[in-house]
Design goal:
The complex is a heterodimer.
Chain A lengths: L1 H11 L22 H15 L16 H12 L5
Helix pairs in contact in A: 1-2
Chain B lengths: L1 E4 L1 E10 H11 L1 H7 L2 H6 L4 H22 L11 E5 L5 E5 L1 H9 L2 E11 L2 E10 L6 E4 L5
Antiparallel strand pairs in B: 1-7, 2-6, 3-4, 5-6
Helix pairs in contact in B: 1-4
Classes of the chains: A mainly alpha, B alpha+beta.
């Protein structure tokens, strides 16, 4: 999952640094990801993992690092169907 | 005698029009529908470059408004910050749902917005009055101010 997240971030986060230089806990906003880029990241993640982020998860913290995104996706992908 | 003045809050943002154009091209209606209201979309009609410039200006205005609202944790839905165009030509910020609630909680009122786009960039500034006691400025007549 982390490799796919990193691929999406490389394509959509518009970071001025290489994703390979950032560890999983690195703050993506501090690394240069803008609010607009985070929208594209969110939509690309939804496409890739066939999920939709609920409004309750639309926090900066949800997308602030590879680990945070991975945790959010795990909770959505693994969530039981209602 | 003390006078209590409401604090001013200012937010600003800058968005490359090209980034918005690419999001529209890549994600289409999903991108537009998650970020912009029907009114905002209706205000941004024309060629793809004109649409992208209008949407970029509105995104900058929304982000500038968020900087004024200073959310802690939860971000308001982008669509709860609507940039409304008056028939006379100027625009205003209209808050609903989560954004309106944040504004009420912090005593924020009288939001004013100005935005522009030129040379591939869109910029916006939002100014608001805030009556939150924790952020107001108290000035005494005796302080010479």
């Amino acid at each position: 999952m982390e490799a796919e997240i990193r691929g999406i971030l490389s394509e959509h986060a518009r970071l001025p640094v290489d994703m390979g230089d950032l560890d999983n806990e690195a703050d993506l906003y501090q690394a240069g990801m803008t609010s607009h880029a985070s929208v594209s990241v969110m939509l690309a993640l939804e496409d890739a993992f066939d999920i939709e982020f609920p409004e309750s998860m639309l926090r900066k913290s949800t997308f602030e690092s590879v680990s945070a995104i991975s945790g959010a996706l795990s909770s959505l992908v693994g969530a039981p169907a209602e | 005698m003390d006078e209590t003045f409401g604090a001013l809050r200012v937010g600003t943002d800058l968005v490359p029009v090209e980034h918005v154009a690419e999001s529209v091209a890549r994600f289409g209606d999903r991108y537009i529908g998650r970020v912009y209201t029907a009114h905002e979309v209706s205000c941004c009609q024309g060629t793809p470059s004109v649409v992208a410039a209008g949407l970029a200006a509105r995104f900058a205005a929304k982000e500038a408004t968020i900087k004024v609202l200073r959310p802690v944790g939860h971000q308001p839905d982008w669509r709860s910050i609507e940039i409304r165009r008056d028939p006379a030509g100027w625009c205003a910020v209209h808050l609903t749902d989560g954004a309106a609630e944040m504004a009420r909680e912090q005593g924020i009122s009288n939001l004013a917005v100005s935005f522009t786009h030129e040379a591939g960039m869109a910029a916006a500034v939002v100014v608001a009055m805030c009556d939150d006691p924790s952020t107001t400025t108290r000035r005494s007549n005796s302080d010479g101010g």
